Structures are given as structure tokens and as C-alpha cells.
Amino acid sequence: MAWHRKHRPHLVKELHLTPVREALEKLMTKKTFPQVFLFAGPKGTGKTSASRILGAMLNDPKNEEVVDALFFKKPLKKAKSLVDPDTDSDFSKRVYQGSSFVVQEMDAASHRGIDDVRALKERAMLPPQEGKITVYILDEAHMLTTEAFNALLKLLEEPPAHALFILATTELHKIPETIVSRSRHIPFRKATDEELTLALGSVLKKEKIEADADAIEAIVQRADGSFRDGVKILESVADDEKIVLETVEKILGKSVEPFLQDILQLVFDKDSTGVSSGINDLRQQKFSEKYVYKVLFSMLHKSLLQDLEVVEGKPLFTQKIARFLIQELLKANLDAFSPITFLSLEVKLLELIERAQQKSGGKTSLKTNTSKKKISKQVVSSKMVNKADVSVKEEAPIEEVDEFYAIESENLVSDIKIDEDNSESLLKTNKNNLKDNLPEEKEEKDEEEVFHLTEEIQGLAKILIEQWDRFLQVVQDKNPTVSALLRSSKPSINDTGMPEVSVYYQLHKEQLQQQKYMSLLGECVKDIVGSSLPLQVVLQVAPVKATLVEVENPSPQLSQLASEALM
């Protein structure tokens, strides 16, 4: 049996995604239990495994009394909660293998019409042949037709007592709101590197195989947040008693990240020859363009989120640098057809180097005014350097540096020297560069300044706005204080395609922008859309119709209460 089937989780406590596991464990202790679930998230993240676990749990003899109380309204002699099923029973084994009629799976991609839903309704009226509850899984539920969704709606509104429905989808935004509102939404997101590492470690332990840490790291990178893909890759490289990095790279090829990091460093060095050589190395490795660009944008986006402290980890770049690179690379239309692989990427990077050289008069070192104070940089190899690893005595004022120089000021490997005699002229030059080159400058409106996010990011932002009420509920469950601050807010998508929330009072804005609250909002966003997505807080002028009362000297008592509530 394939490893990804053999080593599926069989218990709620074995589910690898922490939010999913915690959500189901919480439901197991409640006095009510939903009869309609919506499992939404990327492929290979455990939606089917969780569904089968629910089927085994609700039909386990140990839970019979609780199920009778939850589904059939029978009195419960004493308070009891649902418990994980007995994994050793023949019944549970058949459920996990998908051979029990108590868990019925329907592929909505091939059974998407109204007649298929009507047939499902007829089957759902029949009680289970064994056990208490029949679990119906509608995989790829977003593929159902509008007519099928309408027919399904009535069934979900008044499901039979002996039936539980689970709609599984990878595209939540395609599920009608009428269906979503009648379901208990459990968001599945891509697994973190830590979650994947733990899951793969568990499989290796069961298979009694050892693996080097760098080999596991390489597998985790290629799995792209999918438990199923990770285990499949692990099985494909596990021919020997010990898995080593050389074996992984021999079978799967080398990791693309070091190539991309070195190429970006060469861009910062303004080394055109080195960039073209690095791109050619990519071609020699036979990397897929789609895979490379996915890794590139994921790497930049992750660095942006890390610098904003939305997610944990040490960023490769500051969020300003990452945002600049994302903007510029998206303009290049990297996915456009070309007879030469990576040609669009190569041309765009060479263009960035040319622009930087023009700004600096063709020189490769950066000079800027710091009021006769020197900036010292460590000389390093062509490997990427983190901003925390660079020794900086005095940094130049950011407003005196244009966007591309801002990148170099934090990442260039060359020593930077200040010409004290020409400080005044350099200051003027840098200010002019700022006006000429900043992407956000309003004076330049050509096509090159238009920032288009990927369809994936735009789709996530749209989902968040559409599911704003549920987002507020998630926030309410985690922190009522933050929920109160958002109560009168207005969500929207800004000009860059990112979600933002407008508040009408400066106090609310300042409180929400605290790091602890921004981290909380980031977690709640991930719970809704299944992925990390920065949420900006902006101040908006209150509507004209609103009645505003200005208090010049607020009551000390009220101020104290407000301060305590927002701590």
C-alpha cells in the first residue's frame, strides 16, 4: 500500500494541521454537533482523512450514547463527550480504507448535475446499514452546477437525523454563500514547514528509516504545504536505510532556492554578466518555469510577511525590498510564452540593473549623504545576506534614498564610502532620484507603475472580504477586545489588490496596529482563507451622515477604562 494511504491520520489528535485539530476537538466537547461541514483548503492537507475520522468516531460503539443525544435528541444520563474511535476494530479499518458504506464519497467533478444531487437525496433518506450515522463526502464540491446547488440547499437545511454532510473544496470562493452560511466551515491551509517535518518524521519512525535533516528540509520545500505530496516524495527517495540529501537531489533535482538567492544577490551587485550566467544555470538544471516562479514569489512573499512579523522566521529581505521586487517582477508577465525559458525573468532583472546603474551614473557602489557619518558594510561572498547580519554604524535617512538604492543599502556587499566634500550635492541628487524612481510617486502614471497582484492573492483578498462576518466571529472567539475595535470598521480591497480595514478613529487605528493585535489578525485571516495575507489598517474620514461629538477634555475615568480594556 502506498505510504500516503498507509499512514493517514486515524484519530482527531493525529491530524497534523493544528487549527483543524483544535476545532474538531472543541466540537467533540460541545452539546451540539453540526450536520453540515465545509472543508476548504489546498489539496493534500487532510480533508478526506478528517472526514473519515468523523465517520469512524460517530459510529464507534463507545460514542453511541453521545451520538443518540446529539443527533436523535435522546436524554443523556450523565455528561459525556465524544472520544476518538478505536483504530483496531474491523469497522474502523474499513472506514479508513474507504470500503464502508457508513462513509460514502461522491466526486462532484463527475457527478455535478441536478440528477446526481436528487439521487444523493434519495440515498440520504435511508438509514445506515450499520452504525448510527452515514457520512456523505462531496469532494470538489465547487464543481456542482447552480441547479445542483439549489437542489442541495434544501437537503442541507433539513438533513435527516442519521446523516452528516461534508463538502470538500479547494476553491471556497466558488461555493454559493447560501451553502456556506448553512455549513460549519473548517478552513484547511497549507502545512507549515514544521508541521510537514513532524508528519514526515512520524512516517519515518513507523517505517524504521533514518533521514538527514537537510534531506527532510529539501523534501518539505518540494511538498509545498501538502502532506500527501510530502509523503509521496518521501516514499520515492526511501530506497536505502537512510535518506541523505544527495539521494533526494539525484532523484528530484537540486533545490531552486539557492539559485534564486544567488541571482538576486547578483542583481543587487549590478552584475549583468553574473545574472545572465545564473539564469543559464537554471536552464541547465531543467527546472520548470512554473515551479521556479512559484518558488520565487513564495520566497519573496514569505520574506515580506516575516519582516512584518505576520509569520515567524528570519526574512531574507525587508518588506520594502520584497514588495519592490514583487511589483517589478509581476510587471514582467513571467508566464508569457517565450521560445527561450526564463527569458522574461532575465530581461527584467537586466533592466533593473540598468536602471540602478543610470541612477548611480554607471557606478556599482552606492553613495549617499549622512551628514559626514560613515556607513560600513561587511564584505561577504555571493550568498544572500540578511539585514541582521550586516554591520551598520549609521543608516542613511530612508527619505533620501530611492527605492532601488533602498534595496542596495540593506543588501549590497560592497563597502560604502561617503564623500564629505560633496555631501550637499549628493543630498540633492538623492532627493531627485527619490522623485524620479519611487513606484508610489503620483506624478508618473505610465503602465510600468501599475501593480497587479497574482490571481491567487487577489482571490484570497476577495474571499476575505466576502467572508468578513465570519472573520469577525473568529476574531471575537480569540479576542473580544480586538473584535470591539473592528465592530464599526469597513473592509475593502485597496488599489494594490490587498485587503485593508478602514477605521474612523485614530485611537482604534493605533490600537489595532500594535504588534500583538496585528499578529492575531494575521492568524484569523489564515483561518478564513487558508493562507497568510497581510491586512492593512487605515484611517478613514467618518461618513457625512454620522454624528460625531468631539470631547475636548475626556473624563479621566473613561480614559482609564478605555486604556485598561485595550491592554
Question: Mind explaining what this structure looks like?
Answer:
With 567 residues, the protein is of the alpha/beta class. The protein is built from 25 helices and ten strands. The strands form three sheets. It has a five-stranded parallel beta sheet. Strands 8-9-10 form a three-stranded mixed beta sheet. The C terminus is likely disordered.
Using only CA atoms, what is the Rg?
Answer: 28 Å
User: What is the β-strand count?
Assistant: 10
| Cα end-to-end separation | 54 Å
CATH architecture of the largest domain: 3-Layer(aba) Sandwich
Number of domains: 4
Q: What's the CATH topology name of the largest domain?
A: Rossmann fold
Q: So what's the overall shape? A: globular
Mean pLDDT: 77
Helix count, per DSSP? 25
Strand neighbour order, sheet with most strands: 2-3-4-1-5
Specify the helix fraction band.
40-55%
- Strand % is 5-15%
Structural class per helix/strand content?
alpha/beta
Task: Detail the poorly predicted runs.
Answer: 364-453, 542-567
| The CATH fourth-level homologous superfamily of the largest domain | P-loop containing nucleotide triphosphate hydrolases
Short description:
With 567 residues, the protein is an alpha/beta fold.
Keywords:
3-stranded mixed sheet, globular, Rossmann fold, 5-stranded parallel sheet, 567 residues, 25 helices, alpha/beta
SSE layout and pairings?
Layout: H1 3-6, H2 18-28, E1 36-40, H3 47-58, H4 64-72, H5 90-97, E2 103-107, H6 114-124, E3 134-139, H7 146-157, E4 163-169, H8 177-180, E5 184-187, H9 193-207, E6 210-211, H10 213-223, H11 227-237, E7 242-243, H12 245-252, H13 257-268, H14 272-284, H15 289-307, H16 319-331, H17 343-359, H18 403-411, H19 423-437, H20 455-466, H21 468-478, H22 480-486, E8 490-493, E9 499-503, H23 506-512, H24 515-529, E10 536-539, H25 556-565
Parallel strand pairs: 1-4, 1-5, 2-3, 3-4, 6-7, 9-10
Antiparallel strand pairs: 8-9
